[in-house]
Design a protein that fits this description.
InterPro entries: CbtA_put. By secondary structure, the chain is mainly α. It is built from eight helices and no strands. The protein has one domain.
């Protein structure tokens, strides 16, 4: 049984990563390329060092740092390299696809493990609910404090952002679990309080809010990045549930 769940999770993660890459290429990547045109132009002379320090946060390194596929700006930790050598000698598209497949596979395995531990199987009927909860916990709720970043945006200390992001994801997952799996009102209220706790504490603030990137591009990027992540999570949940149902019938 465990082997079937692992196989279903791996296939679902692979397909979700491919779907997300297609969506990103259509909307997210063009905004990143557009924002890159403003990278070398700080909002004011005194801000130049702050913008330069913030560039790695929107690179492929932030994918690992945030354990999230919502910021696929790839080329900035490798500014001295050719554009066709973004990550391990791969181009931008291949790097994005690889990162999304790895992230999708990891998230699918996590969902499968949680469903087994909680005794709540992921099916074709409720797969979208699992996907929506995953998106809320990993993408949307953390983005309320740390929204997806474009190249050239100032950012707080990386370690502080990592710590707050991980704490927010954990609190969101626990809170959503209490709300979804416990019917008692006190537990559901406790879940809501757990979800709100990191936001009450507050995300690490950026040293400056000034940037040369137009606000309209930043807002469009945030919507597009979160939207592409939602497509990935819903696809992951539905595909995982469908495969679980098929394997269950075959057994």
């Amino acid at each position: 049984m465990i082997v079937r769940h692992l196989l279903a999770a791996m296939v679902a993660g692979l397909m979700a990563g491919i779907i997300m890459t297609v969506v990103q290429q259509a909307r997210v990547v063009p905004l990143i390329l557009q924002a890159e045109e403003y990278e070398g132009a700080p909002a004011s002379p005194g801000d130049a060092h702050q913008h330069g320090a913030s560039l790695p946060s929107s690179s492929i390194g932030s994918l690992v740092a945030q354990f999230s596929p919502i910021s696929p700006a790839m080329a900035h930790e490798h500014e001295g390299e050719e554009e066709s050598n973004v990550l391990f000698g791969l181009d931008r598209l291949t790097s994005t696809l690889g990162a999304n497949i790895v992230a999708g596979g990891g998230f699918a395995l996590l969902v499968a493990a949680l469903s087994l531990l909680l005794g709540a199987p992921v099916t074709a009927a409720n797969g979208w609910i699992w996907g929506a909860c995953g998106w809320l916990a990993v993408q949307f709720l953390p983005a309320m404090g740390l929204p997806p970043e474009l190249p050239g945006f100032p950012a707080a200390d990386l370690a502080a952002r990592q710590g707050w992001w991980m704490a927010t994801v954990l609190a969101s997952a626990i809170g959503l679990g209490l709300i979804a799996f416990r019917r008692e009102l006190p537990f559901r209220l406790l879940g809501l309080l757990v979800i709100l706790a990191p936001h009450v504490w507050g995300a690490p603030p950026a040293p400056s809010i000034e940037t040369a990137v137009p606000a309209v591009i930043a807002s469009e990027f945030a919507v597009a990045a979160l939207g592409s992540a939602l497509v990935m999570w819903l696809s992951l949940g539905v595909i995982l549930g469908y495969l679980n149902d098929r394997f269950e019938k075959a057994a």
